[in-house]
Amino acid sequence: MKLKDKICIITGGASGIGYGIAERFIADGARVAIADLNGTSAQEAARKLTAKGPGSAIGIEMNVADEDMVNAGVDRVVAQWGRVDVLVSNAGIQIVHKIEDFPFAEWKKLLSIHLDGGFLTSKACIPHMKKAGGGSIIFMGSVHSKEASPLKSAYVTAKHGLLGLAREIAREGADYGVRTNVICPGFVKTPLVEKQIPEQAHDLGISEQDVVEKIMLGETVDKEFTTIADVAEVAHFFAAFESNALTGQSLVASHGWYMN
Ligand code: NAD
C-alpha cells in the first residue's frame, strides 16, 4: 500500500476521472479530500468511498478559481490531517465554439478554472509540502496539451499552459522534494465528454456516431476510449513515485492517438 495514510487533495473529485482517482487512492489506504464545486456531490462521494475503505475521504466545497475558497479548503485539510502529500489538480470543464463565435466571458471562465485552478491549488499546497519535506502535484492535462482540435481553442490553450506550470513547479520545488507531473488522457467517457457529443454534432453538422468514431476515436489505434481506471492508475504511479526522477514530465494515455 504505497499511498497508505498519504494525505491527498483531488479537485473535481466528485465526478468522472477525479472520482476514479479518489477511489484508486482510497483503495490503497490514502486519506483523500474530495474538493469540488458541487459540495453536496463531494460529501456524497466521500461517504461512498469511505464506506469502501480501507482509506477514507472528506468532501469539501471548493471553486478552484476562487482564491479564498481554495485557501480555506486546503487549511481545512491541514487542520484535519496535519499536512498535504499529494495534490491532483483535476477540476475542469469544456466549452466548444469556433474562435470567431467564442464568447470572451466563456474563454475566460474556462482558462480560469483550468489555469487559475492549477495555480491557486498549487500555491496553497506547496508551503505545506515544503514543510513536510516534499509532495506530488499532478495536473490533469489532455492530449489537448499536445494537439489541437477544431472548436477547442480555450481548452487547448489551457491544457498546453498546464505543461508550463508543471515545468515551473518542477524547477522551483526541486530543492524541497516537491515534484510535478501532467497526465494527458485521450477521450474518456465521463459526463464532460457525454455532453460534448451532441454539441459537436450540432456545431460540425455531423452525426453523434461520427463525432465518436471519427473525431474522438479517429486517431486511436483501436477505436477505444481511454478509461477512468487507466487514468487513475497513472495518477497512482506518479503519486507514489518518490524521487525527483520523473518531475516535470507528462504522460499521454490515449490508445495511440498521440504517440510522441
Ligand atoms: P467531469 O465533468 O466528470 O468532472 C469534472 C468535475 O470538476 C465535476 O465534479 C465538477 O463539479 C468539477 N468542477 C468543475 N468546475 C469546478 C470548479 N470551478 N471548481 C471545482 N470543481 C469544479 O469531467 P472529467 O471528464 O472527469 O474531467 C476531469 C478532468 O479531466 C478535466 O480537467 C478534464 O479537462 C480532463 N480530461 C478529461 C478527458 C475526458 O475525455 N473526459 C480527457 C482529457 C482530460
Name its key features.
260 residues, alpha/beta, 2 domains, 8 helices, 7 strands, binds nicotinamide-adenine-dinucleotide, Sc_DH/Rdtase_CS, 3-hydroxybutyrate dehydrogenase activity, NAD(P)-bd_dom_sf
Enumerate the strands of the largest sheet in spatial order, edge to edge or round the barrel: 3-2-1-4-5-6-7
Query: How much of the residues is beta strand, in percent?
Result: 15-25%
**Average pLDDT, all residues:** 97
Query: Can you count the helices?
Result: 8
Distance between the termini: 32 Å
State the low-pLDDT regions, or none. none
CATH topology of the largest domain: Rossmann fold
GO molecular function, one term: 3-hydroxybutyrate dehydrogenase activity
EC number: 1.1.1.30
Family: Belongs to the short-chain dehydrogenases/reductases (SDR) family.
Pfam family, one: adh_short
Explain how this protein is built:
By secondary structure, the chain is of the alpha/beta class. It folds into two domains: 7-186 and 227-253, Rossmann fold; 189-225, no CATH class. The protein contains eight helices and seven strands. A seven-stranded parallel sheet has the order 3-2-1-4-5-6-7, with helices on both faces. It is globular, with a radius of gyration of 18 Å. The structure holds nicotinamide-adenine-dinucleotide. Nicotinamide-adenine-dinucleotide is lined by residues 11-12, 14-18, 36-38, 62-65, 90-93, 113, 140, 142, 185, 187-188, 190-193.
